[in-house]
Description:
The chain is built from 13 helices and 13 strands. It starts with 6 loop residues before the first helix and ends with a helix. The strands form 3 sheets. It has a 7-stranded mixed beta sheet with strand order 4-10-9-8-7-5-6, with helices on both faces. A 4-stranded mixed beta sheet has the order 1-2-3-13. Strands 11-12 form a two-stranded antiparallel sheet. It is globular, with a radius of gyration of 22 Å. The chain is α/β, with parallel strands linked by helices. The chain has helices at 7-19, 81-93, 102-114, 128-142, 171-174, 185-194, 222-233, 253-257, 286-290, 302-317, 320-341, 378-387, 407-428; strands at residues 48-52, 55-58, 63-66, 120-124, 146-150, 177-180, 199-204, 236-240, 263-266, 277-281, 346-349, 356-359, 391-392. Helix content is 37%, strand content 13%. Bound molecules: pyridoxal-5'-phosphate. Residues 126-128, 131, 154-156, 205, 240, 242-243, 267 line the site of pyridoxal-5'-phosphate.
Amino acid sequence: MHIYDQKESRKLLERAKKVIPGSPLCPGGGMYGHYSVSVPARGNPIYFSKADGSRFWDVDGNEYIDYMCAYGPMILGYNHGTVDKAARQQYRKGNTVSLASPVMVELAEQLVDMVSIADWAFFAKNGADPTNLAVMVARAATGRKKILMFDGGYHGSSPWMQDPGSGGTIEEDTANVLKATWNDFEQIRKIVGENDGQIAGLISTPYHHPVVFDNEMPAPGFWKNIQDLCNRKGIVLILDDVRAGFRADLAGSNEYFGFKPDLACFGKALANGYPISALVGTDALRDAVSNVFFTGTQFFNAAPMAAALATLRELKRINAPKIMLERGWKVMGGIVDIAKGYGYDLRVSGLPSMPFLRITNQDPPVFSEGIAGLHSGLHSDWISECVQRGAYFLDYHNHFISTAHTDEDTQRTWDIADDAFKAVKKNYGDRF
Ligand SMILES: Cc1ncc(COP(=O)(O)O)c(C=O)c1O
């Protein structure tokens, strides 16, 4: 199988290093944020030249089946005809104008119609906008300060959401943030008891999808217990569906897991890549959200709203979650079987439409020790071998399936995975 090189990507990175600083995960600079994490990985492309359907091409001309889907936004495929047409038409009519467009009302109606708990919707840009707003709404509704979240949960890059001690944050940012362990309801009950009458909201993703570690589904009864506790204690239950949204259930991932939050945050896949996010909520919180000052210059862009409306209609028309859940099962199940043939145990965790992968033979993997071990060891090496053959996986993050992934992609991915296992077997022999 042809092994890719990334000479042009690396050349461009050298230029970038002079004008774009780095991140703690990308020493040397040239890239920031979550896109910086994979830059130091062996054989990783850094810049794309074009994308279409389920694939992208890097600046060296290498073609990849994209299992990251832009970290979630791509759900119907790159350059989706219907979505792009809706956006183009709206761009022609007007995008950022001194008034809102009627499409904003239509989109809010669509979300209220589609999402089970939604009686209203507010729109913004990134996922951190609705998670921030949700926390403010919880505080406005309850008059309380504290927010409870799960250790390893990610809700955006705002200071209150970062780990204490992170660069640029101060103690006060996280002074009112309490952390619990996923699936440990007794601990949550204890924390709520110790902070009785002080917790405004509990924010959580529908299941636990931290970086680096295996993803965890809710234990039986976990969500029901949390919902009952929040209801009893007057705590606003906030679903952060920014990442999983529309890949489990179009009515909200809470429907897949059987619970009812008070607020739900969406972003990423909402418009198949156009920049828009949303907070939806119940009537009980209509006054509270109306009392929070929340705005942004670009929050009223009409073209992303038109794209979102087209995306939601298309997701509904084709019953997209079913397609992605089934495709995820199929492609990942096949890789698990191929791994077995080489003596490797590939663990797939999380939703099949958002699978996290880990070869467990080297346990714990080097990268679970922390940043220093990232991109090294058996699992990371296998991922690198896949990437260098055209399947874009990452070693530390969950993956994403879209409705644009085809049977041909599945077969090609299995061939790549097989060749990649062969390569690591050659390097590692029977060490693991
Ligand atoms: C669960 C979750 N919430 C919130 C966010 C923040 O979204 P954004 O990066 O668009 O601000 C993310 C981003 O990865 C996320 O995965």
